[in-house]
Amino acid sequence: MNQIFQNKKKKKLDRIRTLLKNEDTYEETELHFNFLNPNIREIYGLADSENVSSHEYDEFAQEIIRVQEDGLILDCGSGKRNKYLDNVVNFEIVPYESTDVVGLGESLPFMDNSFDAVLSLNVLEHVKNPFLCAAEISRVLKPEGKLYCVAAFLQPVHAFPDHYFNMTKGGMKLLFEQHLHIDEQKIIQSGLPIFSLTWMLQRWYHSLPHSQKDQFLKKRVKDLIGSPTDYLTEDFVTNLPKEVNEELASTTALFATKK
User: Fold this and answer.
1) Rounded average pLDDT per 10-residue block, the chain, 259 residues
2) pLDDT of residue 220
3) What number of CA atoms fall less than 13 Å from residue 68's CA on the CB side?
4) Pairing of strands 73-76, 88-92
5) Which of helix, strand or coil describes residue 62?
6) What integer pLDDT is reported at residue 40 of this predicted model?
7) The 3-state secondary structure of 1-23, one letter per residue
């Protein structure tokens, strides 16, 4: 851990400390606040996993981070972050070096109205109680604060460390409509049906015995097992109607404001 990162960590943890609920107990290290004591781990059946969740911020998350340069954003289920940002609190159940607070989404250890924005990116399918997580996210969001949430719909099982619920557009709305004003719901580029199609075809193809792979390709899917981004400008992707994108979406996104 280099000195620059260590100084950034200390400064952010000092800032986070003022937002923690007084009644919650935790272990403090030079890297994070840890709220996952053995009792909580047993109650929620948390098991260690060798899987590593790591992804980059998309354009929508980047814009929120830019707008809230002087504010504070909760990345709820941040995964392992390669870039450590001063205005983003990395909340995870895994104590990566980039993690600031270790805990459960169903019981966020922050006071009400703590954050200017919350990011929940491809996380809610991995929690045991997404309704409670949604309520907690809404609770810690400041009035007029922004939520950007993405969750899986037509995606195969991907466990970090487990995968419980996929959700439709209506399911996403149901999670948050009691707490927040829903500004918009849409299928973002990384959630287009082509991501579901290629994921499923790739998994199917690569899971077959070698002797059967050629036979599978002859079923005229051989042009659809590349990267989904290769097809984003193709007519068969761009000309799908909106309702079909929603029906076949790989993820569904929600944007909201706390009123």
Assistant:
1) 90 96 86 86 65 82 97 96 96 94 95 98 95 98 98 88 91 97 96 92 88 82 86 87 86 91
2) 77
3) 26
4) parallel
5) helix
6) 73
7) CCHHHHHHHHHHHHHHHCCECCC
Q: For domain 3-192+248-257, give the CATH superfamily.
A: Vaccinia Virus protein VP39 (3.40.50.150)
In this structure, are strands 251-257 and 181-186 parallel, antiparallel, or unpaired? antiparallel
Residue with tokens 């289920």: 77
> Under DSSP, is residue 244 helix (H, G, I), strand (E, B) or coil?
helix
Determine the Cα–Cα distance for residues 156 and 138; give it in Å rounded to an integer. Answer: 28
Task: Give the 3-state secondary structure of residue 23.
Answer: coil
How many alpha carbons fall within 13 Å on the CB side of residue 223? 4
* For the chain, domain boundaries: 3-192+248-257, 193-239
Angstrom distance (rounded) from CA 89 to CA 56? 15
